[in-house]
Amino acid sequence: MPADALLVIDAQVAVLAGCKRQVETVAVIAELERRARAAKALVLHVQHNAPGSALEHGAPAWAIIPGLTPVAGEMRIDKTACDAFSETPLAEILRDQGVACVAVCGLQTDYCIDTSVRAAVSAGFDVILAADGHTTGDGVLTAEQIIAHHNHVLGRLAHAHRRVWVRPGAEIPFTQRA
């Protein structure tokens, strides 16, 4: 199934700090953005906003990573929780635009990517997770183990009506929109 939209989650300077595979992940996200734009798919940028921290709206480290900056007409959505759908207009925007399937990439695997993929399915959307388009830092497990674990688990998420596919970024198709 092709994606109707690309959701770039927390591709922000402060969030990238401490992550593994930074250069490779940013390159995959940039290529997904390029291909989504070429197909005229909806591209949405979600930014975490945490007042009083490096991720406070407008702070230098709150900014989107250079090279991944939205182009004219692309929406930015602020969020204050790991869930990109919680208390944001995201689901409504996707529904209004006729999106059935959303491609997801960004930061961080074990926080906002995991939570937002699960929320997208619960909100009624199919998801294609870019297996190589998300990253995190080391924790209880190494970043590589965390990424592999989430790719495995999210790709097997049970839902009666929705599905999550996990594909390399280069293999994610986008619906050509008018």
What does this entry look like structurally?
The protein has 178 residues and is of the alpha/beta class. 30% of the residues lie in helices and 21% in strands. It has 5 helices and 6 strands. The protein has helices spanning 13-16, 22-38, 90-96, 109-122, 143-154; strands at residues 5-9, 42-48, 75-79, 101-107, 126-135, 164-167. Helix 5 links the parallel strand 5 and strand 6. The model has no long low-confidence stretch (mean pLDDT 97).
Q: How would you describe this structure in keywords?
A:
alpha/beta, globular, 6 strands, six-stranded parallel β-sheet, single chain, 21% strand, 5 helices, 178 residues, 30% helix
Q: Count of helices? A: 5
Structural class: alpha/beta
Which sequence of strands runs across the widest sheet? 3-2-1-4-5-6
Beta-strand percent range = 15-25%
Query: Share of helix among residues?
Result: 25-40%
**Per the principal axes of the C-alpha atoms, what is the gross shape?**
globular
Write the layout of secondary structure elements.
Blueprint: E1 5-9, H1 13-16, H2 22-38, E2 42-48, E3 75-79, H3 90-96, E4 101-107, H4 109-122, E5 126-135, H5 143-154, E6 164-167
Parallel strand pairs: 1-2, 1-4, 2-3, 4-5, 5-6
Helix pairs in contact: 4-5
Put the structure in a nutshell.
The chain is an alpha/beta fold. The chain contains 5 helices and 6 strands; from the N terminus they run E-H-H-E-E-H-E-H-E-H-E.
